[in-house]
Amino acid sequence: MERISWNQYFMAQSHLLALRSTCERLAVGATIVRDKRIIAGGYNGSIAGDVHCADVGCYVIDHHCVRTIHAEMNAILQCAKFGAPTADAEIYVTHFPCLHCCKAIIQAGIRTVYYAKRL
Question: How much is the pLDDT for 58?
C-alpha cells in the first residue's frame, strides 16, 4: 500500500472538516499547519451560538450568506483564540479562498495556500 503525502493528508483533513459545515450552499474546510503539525481547523457555518443555515435557511445579501463565517477565517480565529502563532504556517482549503479570506491569510503571516477546487 502506498502511503499518502503530507499534502494529501492535510487536504484530507480539510475535506473531513467540510463535513461539519452547516452551510447548504457550499461546504468548505480549512486546516492550518506548521512544521507538519495541525495547529487549527475550521469549516464554514454560523458563528458560535447562532442559528444554522441548515436549520433556518441562508441569509443572503449581494449573493453572500451573511450569517456564516468562512472556514479559513474560522481556522485563523481559532489560532488567535488559543494562542497558536500563524507566522510561516500553511493552510489547506477545500476551495479557493475569497478575497477577504486571502487578505486575512496574508495578514496572519501564512506563507502558503493549498486548495483543492477553484470556484
Answer: 85
CA distance 25 to 13: 20
Q: Annotated catalytic, 2?
A: no
Question: Has domain 6-117 been given CATH number 3.40.140.10?
Answer: yes
Q: What is the pLDDT of residues 88-117, one digit of tens each?
A: 999 999 999 999 999 999 999 999 999 998
Residue 70 among known ligand-binding residues: yes
Q: Which three cell numbers stand for residue 45?
A: 457555518
pTM: 0.92
Candidates 2, 24, 72, 90; catalytic one: 72
Determine the Cα–Cα distance for residues 27 and 36; give it in Å rounded to an integer: 25
Q: List the chain domain ranges.
A: 6-117
What pLDDT does residue 101 have?
98
Residue 64 annotated as lining a ligand binding site: no
